[in-house]
Structures are given as structure tokens and as C-alpha cells.
Amino acid sequence: MLTDSDDSEEIIERVAALDIGKAELVACIRVPHPDRPGRRAQEITTYSTMTRSLLGLAQRLQALGVSRVVMEATSDYWKPVFYLLEAHGLDPWLVNAKDVKHLPGRPKTDRLDAVWLAKIAERQMIRPSFVPPFEIRLLRDLTRYRADLVNVRTAEKNRVEKLLEDAHIKLSVVASDIFGVSGREMLAALIAGERDPKVLAQLARSRMRVKIPILEEALRGRFTDHHAFLLRTMLARIDETSADIAAVETRIEELVAPFGSAVQRLDEIAGVGPTAAHIIIAEIGVDMTRFPTPAHLCSWARFAPGVKESAGRQKGNAGTGHGNRYLARVLGEIAVGASRTDTFLGERYRRIARRRGKKKALVAVGRSVLVIVWHLLSDPQERYHDLGADFYDNRLSPQRKTRAHVRQLEALGYKVTLEPAA
């Protein structure tokens, strides 16, 4: 029985495709033939990726009335081209390179790639990737740079701990954070030349003072001037990176101010703090019209299992694949934080972790957070309401629970007789 198809076979009349490299790009422009109705005319030109040349490309596309410009996501080389064409009022599309892979068995050149990309673009056989608007792009640059700076600082702190181990200073065994107030004073004293473990242990502050006897043992080592030089350099880098992180965070607060209402509503979700809310907004934006449903957002973020079926059987392990690593990282942190709370998300994590393991539980809770985020950002009037840790128990009727327990007892060989309690 024939049914309607959602496919659209309309040909985009005026389309351009760009095969972008670092130094130059090849543009293929396809428009209706001026003299032969029903036929296509195309122009293939090589442009430099310098600004002057790209301005000439933009003017040429405007002169020919091109309505859509398509380009592959090639490293970061696409960004200046995309942004410049966007600023000139054109409609650039960024597409996944996997979706436009050249057919095997045919010659492959930059010119042929551009022609192939133009042909499949004019037949609407590709989908655009998500490129956030300008203000969200600025915020994304800062939040990603902050994450990279935190990684740099963490790596330097690990080097400090390895250096202390080399000097047989076991401070990390006693102190949970060797970069706290007590730890930094002890490290500064070591750099200044103090080697007496009793004097160093007396630098402990607050709750660390109850550990003075064991600190004296931990600080007895062979710390030399060589270690002092390296430690001084490492601590300087840590302090410098911390200052940079603080400056970036200040700038993030300025750029995220227009989205203060969205940040406040996201902050109400269990496990989500201001920093996590900033990252979520920077990665997916606040305009959810780009994602028609929560499932679209979860699929884009790769928090939904892939579908791969052949010969009527499911293939693969239903993995989610690799998505936005910055978004995935913060969703994982949110899931871990929520797992320690007495909330719906915390109970959801614990239920799934018992049955299927912690990794699958993290993905499931991350997906639930994305669904909540979509609803909160889609409707500014929506507020987060926690369903409670007892949500799953309350969903099951008493009769259903009773039947389940009776079946379990009967499976163990018991004969069950039920009597109502007085």
C-alpha cells in the first residue's frame, strides 16, 4: 500500500559548496542555466582564505543570488569563512564530513569534492550542523578555555605531588589537599630552606593541627635545593593559572548576564550549579527551536543509543557514540553530584547503577538532565519541580507490589496466604 513520504525532491536553484583548506578553498556554484531551461550551470573557482579574497567570494555569491552555501567541518578552517559569509547576509550551512563522504572508486580532488558537495546540497540530501549564534559562541569560547585552564592547573598540581614523592615528602598521605592553607605554608617553608619536620609540622592550621605527630613523620624526607627550584616554578605556574581562571570567570559572568533567568532556573536542578549552568548554555544555547523535541537534543548530544539494524536484527552494542565532549563532561559531573542527593535524579542513578552499572547510570541521568533542560529553556515560565526519591515507589500500586512479592516467595517454595492487618 502506497503512503505519503516526507521526502522533498525540490532542487535548490542557487547553491554553492566550499571545499575548505588552510590556505585556499574551492567554491562550486550551481545555478539555473541562463539559455537552456531545465539545465544547470556551474562555476568552479579557487579562492585564498585571506580576508580580502573571502570578501570577493561573498560578493560573487550575492551577485549570483545564491540562497545556500554549504561547507564541510574541516578542523577550525571553516570558522572564518562561515562567520564572514554569515555577516554578509548569506545562509551558510556547516555539514558533517561523514554525511558528504565522496563515493569510493571515483577520482578525488578538491574540485570534484566541491562539485559533489554542491550536487547533494541542491537536492537537500544533507542536514546542517548546529552552530550557535554570535553571543553564545563568545560564551562557549570562554567556558571551553576555562575548562582547558583547569586541566592545565590540575596537571601542574599532579607534577608537584610527584616531585614531593621523589623527595620522599609524604604530605599528600596526611593532607587531603596539599594546596590548602596549611599545605601551601609548608611548601613555601620548604622552598625557603626549612628542613626540620617539627618546625614544618607546626605550620598546620585548624583541623590539621590534630595531625601534627603524623605530619612530622610525613615531612621527614630528602628535600634538596633542586626540588626547591622545581617546586617554586611549579607553584608559580599554578598561581598564574589560577589568576587566569579567575579573570576568565569574571568575563563569563559579564557575558552570561543577559541569560541570568535561564541560569537561575537551571541552577534549581539537582547537581547543577552556576558553573555547570554556564557550560550548558554555552554548548546548546537558549533557543530550543533548533531542537524540535527533547529527543532531538539528546540525539545531538549523543546521549541516546544509536539505531543499527540489519536483516531484522539489532547490530552493535547500542552505544551512544562520541558527542560534544565539553557537554558530556559537565553532564557526567552533574550526574555524579545528583547521585549523592535524596532526589528523583539521585534515586534514578542508584536504581540503574544496581541493575546495569555506574556507567550506564551516568548516561541515563545525563539524558534526564538534558530533557529537563530542554523543557526549562523552551518555556521561560517553566520551573524545575523535583519528583522526589520515592517517585518510583509511589508509581507502583499496592496490588502490583503485593503480586510481585508473592511471586518471589512462591519461587522460593513457599505457599503464601494473605490476611489484612488488623
Name a few traits of the molecule.
422 residues; five-stranded mixed beta sheet; two-stranded antiparallel sheet; 17 helices; 9% strand
End-to-end Cα distance, whole Å, is 62 Å
Strand elements, count: 7
Spatial order of the strands forming the largest sheet? 3-2-1-4-5
What is the helix/strand order?
EEEHEHEHHHHHHHHHHEEHHHHH
Low-confidence stretches: none
Helical residue percent band:
40-55%
Rg, nearest Å: 30 Å
Overall pLDDT level: 87
Main sheet overview: 5 strands, mixed
Give the count of helical stretches.
Answer: 17
What is the molecular shape? flat
Structural class determined from secondary elements: alpha/beta
Strand content: 5-15%
Task: Give a brief outline of the structure.
By secondary structure, this protein is of the alpha/beta class. The protein is 53% helix and 9% strand.
What can you tell me about this protein's structure?
The chain is α/β, with parallel strands linked by helices and 422 residues long. It contains 17 helices and seven strands. Strand 6 and strand 7 (313-314) form a beta hairpin. It is flat and about 95 Å long. The termini are far apart. The relative contact order is 0.06.
Secondary-structure map:
Blueprint: E1 15-20, E2 24-32, E3 40-48, H1 51-63, E4 68-72, H2 78-87, E5 92-95, H3 110-122, H4 134-166, H5 171-174, H6 181-192, H7 197-201, H8 212-218, H9 225-256, H10 260-267, H11 274-284, H12 294-300, E6 309-310, E7 313-314, H13 325-339, H14 344-356, H15 358-378, H16 391-395, H17 398-411
Parallel strand pairs: 1-4, 4-5
Antiparallel strand pairs: 1-2, 2-3, 6-7
Helix pairs in contact: 4-9, 4-11, 6-9, 10-11, 11-13, 12-15, 13-14, 13-15, 14-15
